[in-house]
Amino acid sequence: MAGKSAKRKEKKLQQAASKATEENGENGETVETTEEIVEEYPIDDSTKLNTKPSDLAKISPRTATGVLASHPLSRDIKIISFSLRLYGIELVVDTSLEFNYGRRYGLIGLNASGKSTLLTCLGEREVPIPSHIKIVHLAKEIAPSESTAIEAVLSELGVEKQRLEQEAEELCGLDQEDPGVSDRLNDIYEALDEMEVDTAETRAGKILHGLGFSKEMQKKKTKDFSGGWRMRISLAKALFMKPTMLLLDEPTNHLDLEATVWLEEYLMNYNKILILISHSQDFLNNVCTNICHLQNKKLTYYGGNYDTYIGTRAEIEVNQMKQYQREQDQIAHMKDYVARFGHGSQKLARQAKSKEKLITKMEEKGLTERVFRDKVYTLRFYECGTLPPPVVQFNKVNFAYPGQKDLLYKDIDFGIDLDSRIALVGPNGVGKSTLLKLIVDQLTPTGGIIRRHNHLRIGWYHQHLTEQLDLTVTPLQFMMKSFPEGTEPETVRRVIGRFGLTGKVQTTPIGQLSDGQKSRVVFAWLAHKEPHLLLLDEPTNHLDIETIDALAEAINEFDGGMVLVSHDFRLINQVAEQIWVCEKKTITTWKGDILSYKEELRKKMNMEK
Q: Are 147 and 221 in contact (CB under 8 A)?
């Protein structure tokens, strides 16, 4: 049997590495050679993902150390004694990285704890990860080029096939009785079979379609897409490559609800190693099989999804605190005994000495640590007072962008008051953000009338606000500059402190802050404007889960109105009382909650399959 297995592997390798087209014995179809694949799908340097070696001329701000403890040919990864620094600051200290093949990990932790830095460290192979582990790290959008969207997704197909064939050839020269060699060869043959070059373009097209690309958009050049759409192309490419280790950092940030549901369904069936950072509890619950918690510079692993993690962690912490309290009470009792009787009679002194030795032994063995609680900040919007409804009124409003013949909205009528809690939903491109711009008077309607109360103050949060921050000033300086009249430094410190910006962060240049901290600066600025109406366009991007819950609580306690655009189903479920569907040039009210709307999207998606 061993001889037959070796012959089968040898024959498979010869077929994969053949330089001439051969006839397929079963159906008569031709099999393309590697050279033909490379010619048909040329490698586009502008759209490569982690195929170029690190630029040695640049000094990385990260320093990582660790020792590979798993088998060099294993599909599982275990690295012990792992530590990570960024600009000399310790983020992770002496912990283990353990990622098993076929598992999907949710990496969670507070903003600025080092989650994104950890993914970058893995993506750049700054720790000893075996070379056969194919890694794709979704870090940025695809570069603009002459390649079409479908070509960009397929651009590495040829080189990946060559890489696998070369590795298989090298392994065939090793000891075939070694289980590591045998297993790796089987993995390679399976990967080569999965490529199915004849159907590659169809499979890539399905992924793009799931992420919101029509057939016409798939043929459009990448240079003609916005940054958000090019990020989707980059995501499609990462999914199409099916790497051994897929690293996704907030992949839903540039997606609408429909694309989020599709991605959730796709990742639920990802059968290799997935490490995911996401602020959406709903997404983590449906995708992840394990949770990896980064806290206090350590990584702790939990089995199950996010809800399971919450229950398990709570139970562990309760037991840990009980054990900690027992030990502290025991030590306190023995120390009290030593203090009282250590210099008494010979018998009492011996007993005191014995208790001192017992305390020393307990300390050497290691005492139970006190439970470390994440510091969660409470967000708050100021009381805004009252205004008679409606504060915003749309009457027969039409809108089309200049140069566009087709209307984006036609004859829309609605009113918004200070009791409104509205979530806008619908596919990308239907005009959700455009509607917010019409409300805030940044766009002028093509027809109809928009009335706003004369004293209405609007607080508009949108995705590009953080990009407009002056990165050279500190949060304290930014707020002082934004509100120069009658604002004392200590008052401003308290204001931004309520949004989780405390201590040295207040005097650190904004350019050195994490994306989540930059978002907090914007929220502090927004709250200090004391708006009557909040317009929130994707407010959860870059926020951690705890801050999103704090934001939801702040919105629910806010006495003004709110209009929300978000891909976070859980946030919508927490704060929205009405669901408005933007579609087909109009706005309709959904009869149900956001969870029923999500289920409808899932049914629609399954029907399209």
A: yes
Residues 86 and 114: beta-carbon distance below 8 Å: yes
Amino acid at 67: V
pLDDT, tens digit, for every residue of 515-570? 888 888 999 999 989 999 999 999 988 888 888 999 999 999 999 999 999 999 99
Cα 350 to chain centroid, rounded: 60
Same domain, 221 and 248: yes
Sheet with 77-86: strands ordered across: 62-68, 77-86, 89-99
Which range marks the domain in which residue 348 is found?
308-365
Alpha carbons within 13 angstroms on the beta-carbon side of residue 274 total 30
According to DSSP, the residues that pair with 395 across neighbouring strands are 449
By the 8 A CB rule, do 79 and 96 touch? yes
Cα 552 from Cα 502, distance rounded (Å) = 21
For 197-246, write each residue's pLDDT tens digit. 778 889 999 999 999 999 999 999 999 998 889 999 999 999 998 999 99
**What pLDDT, on the 0 to 100 scale, is given for residue 391?**
95
Provide the CATH number for the domain around residue 34.
3.40.50.300
Rounded Cα distance, 87 and 110, in Å: 19
* Residue 373 CB neighbour total at 10 angstroms: 8
Six token digits for residue 313: 């962690």
Q: Cα separation of 531 and 539, whole Å?
A: 16
Is 66 part of a structural domain of the chain? no
Considering the domain architecture, whether residues 434 and 578 belong to the same structural domain is answered as: yes
DSSP summary character for residue 393: E
**528/526 Cα distance (integer angstroms):** 5
Contacts of residue 30, defined as CB under 8 A and 6 or more positions apart, other chains included, come to 21, 22, 23, 24
Least confident of 313-327, 394-408, 456-470: 456-470
**pLDDT above 90 as % of the chain:** 53
Query: How far is residue 250's CA from residue 234's CA, in Å, rounded to a whole number?
Result: 13
Tell me the C-alpha distance between 600 and 590, whole Å.
11
What's the distance, Cα to Cα, between the start and end of the chain in Å? 41
- DSSP helix/strand/coil, 32: coil
Classify residue 249: in a domain, yes or no: yes
Crossing angle of helices 157-172 and 179-195, rounded to 10°: 150
Neighbour-count burial for 95-104, b at 16+ CB within 10 Å, e otherwise: bebbbeeebb
- pLDDT one-digit tens code per residue, 50-101: 444 444 445 788 999 999 999 888 889 999 999 999 988 899 999 999 999 9
Residues 6+ apart with CB under 8 A from 325: none
pLDDT of residue 344: 65
pLDDT at 386 over 60: yes
Say which residue, 224 or 488, is predicted with more confidence: 224
Residue 360 belongs to some domain of the structure: yes
Cα–Cα distance measured from residue 287 to residue 268, given in angstroms and rounded to the nearest whole number: 5
**Range with the largest mean pLDDT of 65-74, 285-294, 374-383:** 285-294
Report the candidate in 299, 335, 258, 151 with the shortest Cα–Cα distance to residue 604.
Answer: 258
Enter the tokens of residue 303. Answer: 């089995």
Task: Report whether pLDDT(355) > 90.
Answer: no
Q: What is the number of structural domains in the chain?
A: 3
C-alpha radius of gyration, the chain, whole number: 29
